[in-house]
Task: inverse folding
């Protein structure tokens, strides 16, 4: 017994993994574990999109204004097409919902930073040689992973509830999830960065509401841009969320887009790169006690 | 490095918050390899700020700070690899088991799983948590949580372990057990330990050397007995039946007596070697034809030393709100 103790005592630390990204998976898994091992959290986070799709999506039916007007079907079709780029408002909304769920999942990525700080885990992680950038990247990636899963659930529910599947293709779905990935990356980067200095969850909640609702309403997620006042249209044009949704509508339901698909992708890639890179760079300055 | 060399070398270390608040003000000390070094002081004295600088959590404002031979600013990662930290808060993830928590720490240090799996088992055995290792931490008692934190702090084979208030809020029995683990680390593993505490008895029974810190300054460094002796030796209180005559000056002239104070019919005498001085004092009083009614001898305590050196008793004091909340949370959790 004594001898084993003595040997462990004098054993030199094993050659540690000096890779700059060591610990990334451990941190991501720690956060995701809270989600997938807690059935309540998992169910609640999956029920939320059902409520939005089922209640909001089915109740707020813009197309009924036009279909109920008694106009000939050809006119109705053309009118819907001109407003929504497709003849089904529900399908239009479903694409918006895909990004909506990403928006809300990402917003709370900052909250877990605040809790980790409050309960001391952040200090613990900071006292280890894990890279500060990895701590931030871990927070971003766990949120991206949740967003992808939630978006997949939303998509399945949308199809079950009657989203048009005529233009559905493997490439379109792949492109859609590429956009979801990028938007989640950018938004999580933004919210994680805003939370790095904060140990106060009330402030963080205020920031979430301050950013999330404008990002949602000043976009094409719920309503066609055409019916908006001019000044709001200008805001929608600089909102990266609009580009993401515009791209998804083209890829998923074959809608006529506002922008070319390449432009949508360029904006979303730029958005994702900017905030994830800035988040990681800022982590060196901001992740102090 | 030789065993006699300083494992922590701090000179004139200063931390200023927001340009005005001097939390640590020109602190200098050395810790020798293999000793238990204690930082004793009230809340807000600068203990945690010093630890945070030495463990690279916050940057120092000025001064020199070398840990395990590495500068804390220039070679922060080298310092992090060589030291273990057991923070004051309970940082373990409540939703994970004790075993998973230790492995998580190992991953953050980049220790390969091939090694960390067996090492985690050894550490769980050391802190006697092997039976509870697969339970979620949320079911742990305060003592178990503290032991788990200790095991996590040891996962990277540190040469130096920082313990910030290791027994905060623990009951006496658990506290004694934690002290025993700390002694084991020193004696069997040859580890150097840096302990902060505001419990005098903890500093007294655990530490080889103590630095008393107050308002960001180190007031005195020494072994517990040196600190006690610096107060001025033993105290003898003698009761004399007759209040008159005043024999203060006669007692003061007895060999080794340093000072005498008269309180009613009692004389409070400060002296070296109290056991030998007491009979001499009694003989002297009897030789004056007076009667000794009572006598007591007390050795100086660290409380008295602390009072003498800082001018106040060590008690809970209000510091900033977050620090207090986090301490209360720790204490609450430790009782659950």
Result:
């Amino acid at each position: 017994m004594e001898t084993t103790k003595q040997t462990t005592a004098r054993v030199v630390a094993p050659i540690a993994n000096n890779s700059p990204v060591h610990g990334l998976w451990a941190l991501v898994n720690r956060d995701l574990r809270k989600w997938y091992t807690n059935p309540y959290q998992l169910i609640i986070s999956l029920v939320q999109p059902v409520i939005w799709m089922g209640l909001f999506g089915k109740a707020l039916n813009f197309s009924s204004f036009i279909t109920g007007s008694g106009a000939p079907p050809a006119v109705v079709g053309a009118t819907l097409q001109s407003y929504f780029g497709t003849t089904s408002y529900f399908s239009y909304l479903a694409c918006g919902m895909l990004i909506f769920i990403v928006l809300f999942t990402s917003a709370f990525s900052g909250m877990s930073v605040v809790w980790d700080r409050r309960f001391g885990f952040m200090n613990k992680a900071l006292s280890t040689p894990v890279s500060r950038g990895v701590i931030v990247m871990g927070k971003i990636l766990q949120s991206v992973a949740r967003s992808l899963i939630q978006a997949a659930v939303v998509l399945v529910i949308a199809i079950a509830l009657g989203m048009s599947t005529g233009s559905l293709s493997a490439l379109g779905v792949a492109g859609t999830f590429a956009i979801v990935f990028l938007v989640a990356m950018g938004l999580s980067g933004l919210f994680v960065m805003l939370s790095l200095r904060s140990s106060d969850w009330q402030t963080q909640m205020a920031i979430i509401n301050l950013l999330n609702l404008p990002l949602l309403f000043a976009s094409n997620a719920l309503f066609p841009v055409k019916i908006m006042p001019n000044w709001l249209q200008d805001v929608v044009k600089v909102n990266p969320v609009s580009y993401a949704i515009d791209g998804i509508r083209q890829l998923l339901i074959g809608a006529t887009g506002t922008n070319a698909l390449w432009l949508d992708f360029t904006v979303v890639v730029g958005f994702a790169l900017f905030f994830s890179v800035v988040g990681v760079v800022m982590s060196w300055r901001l992740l102090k006690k | 490095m030789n065993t006699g060399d300083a494992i922590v070398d701090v000179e004139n270390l200063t931390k200023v918050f927001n340009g005005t608040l001097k939390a640590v003000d020109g602190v200098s000390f050395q810790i020798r390899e293999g000793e238990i070094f204690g930082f004793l002081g009230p809340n807000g004295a600068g203990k945690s700020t010093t630890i945070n600088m030495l463990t690279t959590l916050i940057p120092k404002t000025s001064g020199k700070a070398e840990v395990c031979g590495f500068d804390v600013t220039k070679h922060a990662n080298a310092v992090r690899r060589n030291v273990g930290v057991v923070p004051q808060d309970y940082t373990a993830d409540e939703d994970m088991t004790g075993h998973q928590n230790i492995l998580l720490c190992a991953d953050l240090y980049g220790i390969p799983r091939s090694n960390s799996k067996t090492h985690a088992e050894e550490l769980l055995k050391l802190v006697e948590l092997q039976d509870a290792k697969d339970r979620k931490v949320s079911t742990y008692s305060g003592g178990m949580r503290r032991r788990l934190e200790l095991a996590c702090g040891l996962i990277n084979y540190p040469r130096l372990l920082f313990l910030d208030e290791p027994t905060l809020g623990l009951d006496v029995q658990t506290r004694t057990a934690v002290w025993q683990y700390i002694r084991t680390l020193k004696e069997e593993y040859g580890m150097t330990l840096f302990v902060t505490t505001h419990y005098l008895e903890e500093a007294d029974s655990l530490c080889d050397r103590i630095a008393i810190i107050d308002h960001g300054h180190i007031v005195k460094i020494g072994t517990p007995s040196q600190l006690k002796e610096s107060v001025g030796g033993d105290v003898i209180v003698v009761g004399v039946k007759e209040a008159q005559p005043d024999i203060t000056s006669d007692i003061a002239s007895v060999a080794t007596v340093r000072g005498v104070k008269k309180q009613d019919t009692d004389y409070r005498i400060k002296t070296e070697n109290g056991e030998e001085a007491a009979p001499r004092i009694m003989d002297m009083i009897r030789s004056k034809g007076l009667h000794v009614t009572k006598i007591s001898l007390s050795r100086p305590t660290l409380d008295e030393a602390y009072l003498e050196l800082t001018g106040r008793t060590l008690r809970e004091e209000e510091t900033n709100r977050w620090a207090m909340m986090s301490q209360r949370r720790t204490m609450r959790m430790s009782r659950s």
Remarks:
- Chain A has one domain: 30-286.
- Residues 132-160 of chain A form the longest helix (29 residues).
- Confidence is low (pLDDT under 50) at residues 1-11 of chain A.
